[in-house]
Amino acid sequence: MAAAQKAAQGHSRAHRARARPLSRREKLTLTTQFRNKPRIPCPHCGETAGIRKSQGLTPVYREAVIECRNPECGWRGKISIEITHTITPSDMPNPTVALPLVPRLRELAMAKAATG
Ligand SMILES: [Zn+2]
After folding, report:
1. Ligand 1 centroid to residue 64 C-alpha, Å
2. What is the rounded CA–CA span in Å between residue 42 and residue 79?
3. Disulfide engineering: 68 pairs with which of 27, 75, 108, 115, CB 3.0-4.6 Å?
4. Where in this protein does the record put region Disordered (predicted)?
């Protein structure tokens, strides 16, 4: 490979490094980081509360009944879960879902658009 070509390639790689999309491997790494189930504590006794039934009202909004696992407490309540932002864009995007990117990704996307 000619030196000029190498230099050009090196330049474009450095140029793209900031805005390049995540690879499959990187996506998987991110996913495995969240494999530990999130724990929601009971607001009264602090014991883990379990989600009993959950109902999706929209693709990005869900409501659920939550129940304390401490039999001496017995609290039950309602929670809502709203998906607010995209961290890693889907490779199978649902056209009805319009989620803003997390601010860091928005900056990268705008920088990419500005530089072509
Ligand atoms: Zn409790």
Report:
1. 17
2. 11
3. 75
4. 1-28
Nearest by Cα to 86 from 70, 73, 105, 69: 105
End-to-end, the C-alpha distance of the chain in Å comes to 26
- What does DSSP assign to residue 110? H
Per the model's pLDDT, the better-predicted residue between 13 and 63 turns out to be: 63
* Measured distance CA(1)–CA(14) in Å, rounded: 19
At residue 99, the pLDDT reads 93
Report the separation in Å between the CA atom of 84 and the middle of ligand 1, taken as the mean of its atom positions.
28
Are 78 and 64 within 8 A, CB to CB?
Answer: yes
Q: Which residues surround ligand 1, an ion (CB under 5 A)?
A: 42, 44-45, 47, 68, 70, 73, 75
According to the model, what pLDDT value does residue 27 have?
Answer: 67
CB atoms < 10 A from the CB of 49, how many? 23
User: Which parts of the chain are beta strand (E)?
Assistant: 40-41, 48-58, 61-68, 76-82
The yes-or-no verdict on residue 43 having pLDDT over 70 is yes
Q: Give the tokens for residue 57.
A: 């009202």
